[in-house]
Each structure stands twice: as C-alpha cells, then as structure tokens.
Amino acid sequence: MTDDLSPRSWRNWARSQRARELRRALAADDLARENDPPMTDWYLAADAAQPAATPTARPRLLDLFCCAGGAGMGYHRAGFDVVGVDINPQPNYPFEFHQGDALEYLAEHGQEFDAIHASPPCQQFTAYRRRGAGVGDSYVNLIPETRAALQMFDVPWVIENVPGAPLLDPVQFCGSSFNLDVRRHRRFESNVPITAPACDHSWQTPRFPPATNRTNLRSTVEVGVWRIPLDVQQKAMGIDWTTLRELSEAIPPAYTQHIGTHLIAALDAAASA
User: Fold this and answer.
1) Beta pairing partners, 97
2) Phi and psi for 64 in degrees, rounded to 5?
3) Binning pLDDT at 50, 70 and 90, where does residue 227 land?
4) The pLDDT of residue 229 is above 60
C-alpha cells in the first residue's frame, strides 16, 4: 500500500504508525500495572524511609590564563568542574568562560573555587628567545605576581610554564610518559605534593616528517606548523577541538588529568583531617 505514497505522505504514514505502536505499548504497560498486587503499607513505609539520592558535587577549579582549554580539559577529566579566564576571547574553550584580566578575576572570585591553575604567559622563556638578541623582551613575566596572588588562597594551586621559567621546585612532565607522540616538556609548581612519571623517549622512534631545515625523520610530531595536517598534530597532543594556533599554545590534557588526581587527593585529605 505504501509503494504509491509520495515521500511526504509516506513520512506522515510512518509517523502515525509509530504513534499507534507507542499507544499500544503504553496501554499494555498500564494493563500490567493494573494486574500488579497492591503495595502494602509496609512496602510504602520502607520506600519512604529511603533517603533521596543526591548527586555528589564536583570540586570547582579556576583555570587562569586558560587559552583554548588544554589544561582545563585534563582537570575536567580528573573530576573538576572547570571555569576558565583569559584576557582574549576563547570561542573554543570547552567549559564556562569569562573574558578579562586573570589576576583581577582571581582577586574577586578566587574564594569561590576549591583549586586554582594558572598558566601565565611563557613567551619570555620559550625557545623563540633563541632567534636573536632582544626577541621576547617585550613579554612580561607574570609568574611572581601570579604566585603572590595564589598564596592568598588556602586551596591547592598550580602554576604551569616552560623549562627555563622561574618556577620554585617544579616537576616536569613529558608527553612520552603518557604515550603521546610529543615531548612537550612543561613544568609545574604547586603548594601540594605532585609527582610526575619519568620521561621515556626510548619508544619514540623516527617516523614523522622532518623539520624544514633537516632531512632526518622526527621522533615526535612537530606542533604548530602548517605543513603537518592539523588532525595529526591534535592526535599527538590528545586534543581535538582547537585551531592550529590554539594547539601551538596548549599543553596535553593528560598532564593536568594526572595533576588533578593529586589536587583531589589533597582536597580529600584536608576534608578528612
């Protein structure tokens, strides 16, 4: 019968068929309920005595200088509700986001959070400084100011930056420790104990396109370059929502997922003390 129907008529027929099937299913369910034995007073009392289930609130983490959310995603996976702040618009940030000065937001709202992460600008300490005298001099060093601001809060906090940045007793993370096809060494300072798995470059064998000034294969994926497909770079970092430029400034979420477990352990220890 349906062979002669127009596409629109066929869709209407199909909808009516699904509606009839749903009504039959609901009617059968109602009949089954009518045949069920009535609840006894004891059953109703016992059921009423059960406490209502309440969802466990996730701890909240403030992600300062958040960029596109590489760090924030790791903390989210570790169990935090994450809120990001950055001076620049971040349309691809995957969580609640506020545009503004990170340290001003911290001063006004820091007490609303259970933990804080900060990634102040790293350009003054990066490899770009090798390009010549004066390169990077225009970038400010916000690490001392950020540390002083974080020390005003009695919660676990973390500062992230590159090797060479003036962090205090930092631990270093490497992509090789997390089976990532990057090394991406980054250092983390914290007011709670954090351990980092050791680097293991041995398994990262030459198999990726070389740098433009070399002919030998790379052991890792070069991140932040146009000549390598974006999806290849994203996979190497464990990130799939950023642009190329955003990716070049990101850290692998695996780092902060690992760190996040330490922060939650510190929160649990403080709560049970």
Assistant:
1) 84
2) -90, 145
3) confident
4) yes
**Window from 119-128, 150-159, 194-203 with minimum mean pLDDT:** 119-128
Amino acid at 250: A
Q: Looking at the domain assignment, is residue 221 inside a domain?
A: no
Residue 237 and residue 179: Cα distance in Å, rounded? 10
Report the distance separating Cα 126 and Cα 137, nearest Å.
11
In a domain, 76, yes or no: yes
CA atoms 44, 50, 53, 54: torsion sign? positive
CATH of the domain at 78: 3.40.50.150
pLDDT given for residue 125 in this prediction: 57
In a domain, 83, yes or no: yes
Domains contained in the chain, number:
1
Helix (H/G/I), strand (E/B), else coil: 255 = helix
Note down the domain range covering 75.
60-197+251-272
Q: Rounded to the nearest 10 degrees, how much is the dihedral formed by the CA atoms of 193, 197, 199, 202?
A: 170
Residue 45 placed within a domain: no
Question: How far apart are the two ends of the chain, measured CA to CA in Å?
Answer: 74
CA separation for the pair 221, 211 (Å, rounded):
10
Residue 68: closest CA among 53, 45, 89, 44: 89
